[in-house]
Write a structure and sequence with these properties.
The chain is mainly alpha-helical and about 270 residues long. It is built from ten helices and four strands. The strands form two sheets. It has a two-stranded antiparallel sheet. Strands 3-4 form a two-stranded antiparallel sheet. Strand 3 and strand 4 form a beta hairpin. The longest helix is centred in the C-terminal third of the chain and has 29 residues.
C-alpha cells in the first residue's frame, strides 16, 4: 500500500507539473476533465451521477470552462468573460426547473447536491487555471501545491512528533492542533523559500519573501477546512473514498480536496498583495 501510494503520488506530481508547464488550453482542458470527474464522484455520493441534475452539472462544467478559456474573445461585441456569472445563474435556474417539472422524482437534497457539485468542484478548481493564465502564473500556481500538499505533509510530520491536542476528535482523530499550526507555518516557510527562486524569474517585487510567506500561510488555512469538509461528507455518507482513480489515494476529491479551497484564496491573495 505504501509503495503504491508513493509511486502514484510521484506520477501525479509529474503529470500535474507537466500540465501546468504547458499552460493555456492544455491546463484548461486538464482542469476541466479533472472537474468533471470530481463532479461525478460527488454526485455518486448522493446516487444521482447518472440522472439529469448530474448530467446538467457535467454539461455546465464544460460551458463554464469554455467561457474561461475563450474569455478574451467576444460575441456580438460582448466579452465572453462576462458570461461566467450568467452561466452559474442559468444552471441554478435549470436544475430548479428539473426539480419542479419532475417533482417528486428528485428531493431537494439531490438538487442541492447537483448545484454544490458544480460550484464546489468545477468553479473552485477553475482558479488553478485562472492563476496559471496570470502574468507569471506558471510560477505562482506552484503556491497551490505548497499550500495544500506541502501543508498536509508538514502538518502530518509536526503532528506525529509533537501532537498532543486533538483538533477534531470525531471527524479526524489523528489531526492535532500542533499539526495544524505546524502545517500553516510550514507552508509559510516553504513560500518564503520559494520566493528566493522566484526573484530570478519574475519582475522585481518589494518584500517578496514576506509577501509569499503571508500568502502561503493564509492559503494553508482553507486547505485544512477543505480537507475536513471532504472528510465530513464521507463520514455523513459512510464511504471510505470518493473513487479509485488514483491508486493508493482514492479519487479526485480525495487528493484535491484541500486545493479546491486553496486555489481561489491564493488567486485573490495574489491579486491583492502582489
Amino acid at each position: 500500500m505504501f509503495w503504491t501510494r508513493l509511486i502514484s503520488g510521484i506520477v501525479l506530481i509529474i503529470l500535474a507539473f507537466a500540465v501546468l508547464f504547458f499552460g493555456g488550453p492544455v491546463t484548461g482542458i486538464a482542469i476541466m476533465l479533472l472537474s468533471i470527474v470530481g463532479v461525478f464522484e460527488l454526485c455518486r455520493v448522493y446516487e444521482i451521477e447518472k440522472h439529469s441534475p448530474a448530467v446538467l452539472a457535467y454539461i455546465w462544467t464544460v460551458l463554464y470552462y469554455v467561457a474561461l478559456m475563450f474569455s478574451k474573445e467576444s460575441v456580438l461585441g460582448v466579452s465572453i468573460s462576462r458570461f461566467a456569472m450568467p452561466i452559474l445563474i442559468t444552471y441554478l435556474l435549470i436544475i430548479l426547473g428539473v426539480y419542479v417539472f419532475k417533482y417528486p422524482k428528485y428531493h431537494d437534497r439531490e438538487i442541492m447536491a447537483a448545484f454544490m457539485s458544480f460550484f464546489y468542484v468545477s468553479v473552485m478548481l477553475s482558479y488553478i487555471y485562472k492563476i496559471r493564465v496570470m502574468d507569471n502564473g506558471g510560477y505562482f500556481v506552484v503556491l497551490c501545491f505548497i499550500c495544500s500538499w506541502g501543508n498536509d505533509t508538514l502538518a502530518y510530520c509536526v503532528g506525529v512528533l509533537f501532537g498532543k491536542h486533538k483538533m477534531s476528535p470525531k471527524l479526524s482523530p489523528k489531526k492535532s492542533v500542533e499539526g495544524l499550526i505546524g502545517g500553516i507555518l510550514g507552508a509559510g516557510l516553504l513560500g518564503l523559500l520559494y520566493s528566493f527562486f522566484l526573484k530570478a524569474h519574475v519582475p522585481a517585487t518589494d518584500y517578496l519573501p514576506l509577501k509569499l510567506f503571508i500568502i502561503s500561510a493564509l492559503g494553508a488555512i482553507p486547505a485544512v477546512i477543505g480537507d475536513l469538509a471532504a472528510s465530513a461528507i464521507k463520514r455523513n455518507n459512510d464511504i471510505k473514498d470518493y473513487g479509485k482513480l488514483i491508486p493508493g489515494h482514492g479519487g479526485v476529491l480525495d487528493r484535491f480536496d484541500s486545493m479546491i479551497f486553496t486555489a481561489p484564496i491564493i488567486y485573490f491573495l495574489l491579486e491583492f498583495i502582489l
